UniProtKB/TrEMBL annotation:
Belongs to the LysR transcriptional regulatory family. It comes from Pseudomonas flavocrustae. Signal peptide: none annotated. This is LysR family transcriptional regulator ArgP. Residues 2-58 form the HTH lysR-type domain. The keyword Transcription regulation applies. Keywords: DNA-binding, Transcription, Transcription regulation.
Length: 295
């Protein structure tokens, strides 16, 4: 039999990124959490964590994490059907998603529905190209990302795409982008990039026929990204649903009208994710088209 206290310790260590924070969340000492992990490893006969910062699950650890995620969701369903087993706290769904969705359409799409359902979210925010790693690692029950590659034991749904355009402030354009073709000018001008895994600006320049390296600021904040563009610090790719007001007012300028990058968004969720996760999936499929581009 699986001791679910041991599995819960494994999940919390990975979710919290360390033994000390996991201990605080579980109300245990750090040594007690460490002992539970060691006991779990003794039970399965293999290491379940790589002791680095933050701790990373091994291949057996990943399988156990996926299992405990699904158990959590199924237990919540059981509590709704058998009131005596229900937890006092509202049900929580742990979801990973890209920062641009969180800064634009996601709150409006799910907010009223969450209130109606009485659900709470634990959101893990990453770049859209790497979010799927969180689900593959068993850290989340669902994720929203740019990859449509299905995972074993999960389902994937296409919700649409976010359309990105290259924008900058009028002052930045006057300072950096006059006197030469736009593609050449952009390579010489400082860009804004969300993080080391963000390739949007690279993809956009490739569309314009440019593959040369370029200088850029790193800004791992969707809101900060737009503020840096508005302040004339650099140029960058912003989604239409985030930049529309600034473009309409003239605070930002579309640098190459008629050129854009569409980033598809896929919703991944565990097959045995429970009633609440299935309901959220149906809801997203029904409303995402209000904000996302669909063929």
């Amino acid at each position: 039999m699986i001791d679910y206290k041991l599995l819960e310790a494994l999940a919390v260590v990975v979710e919290e990124g360390g033994f000390e924070r996991a201990a605080r969340r579980l109300g245990l000492s750090q040594s007690a959490v460490s002992q539970r992990i060691k006991l779990l490893e003794a039970r399965v006969g293999q290491a379940v964590l790589v002791r680095e910062t933050p701790p990373q699950p091994t291949a057996p650890g990943l399988r156990l994490l996926r299992h405990i995620q699904q158990v959590r969701l199924l237990e919540a369903d059981l509590g709704s059907e058998v009131p005596g087993l229900a937890e006092e706290a509202p049900q929580r769904l742990r979801i990973a998603l890209n920062a641009d969705s969180l800064a634009s359409w996601w709150p409006a799409a799910v907010g009223p529905w969450l209130v109606e359902q009485g659900l709470l979210l634990d959101l893990v925010v990453e770049d859209q190209d790497v979010v799927l790693r969180r689900m593959r690692a068993g850290e989340v029950a669902a994720c929203l990302c740019a990859s449509g590659q299905p995972l074993a034991g999960a389902r994937v749904r296409s919700l649409g795409a976010m359309r990105y355009r290259a924008v900058a402030s009028p002052d930045f354009c006057a300072r950096w982008l006059t006197g030469r073709p736009i593609a050449q000018a952009l390579v010489r001008a400082p860009a804004i990039v969300f993080g080391p895994d963000d390739r949007l600006q690279h993809r956009y320049l490739e569309q314009l026929g440019v593959t040369a390296p370029f200088d850029y600021h790193l800004c791992p904040s969707a809101e900060g990204f737009q503020q840096m563009a508005l302040s004339g610090i650099g140029w960058g790719l912003l989604p239409d649903i985030q930049s529309a007001a600034a473009l309409a007012s003239g605070a930002l300028v579309d640098l190459a009208p008629g050129h854009w990058v569409d980033v598809p968004l896929f919703w991944h969720h565990w097959r045995n994710g429970g009633v609440a996760l299935q309901a959220l999936t149906r809801h997203l499929e029904g409303v995402a088209g209000q904000w996302l581009v669909r063929d």
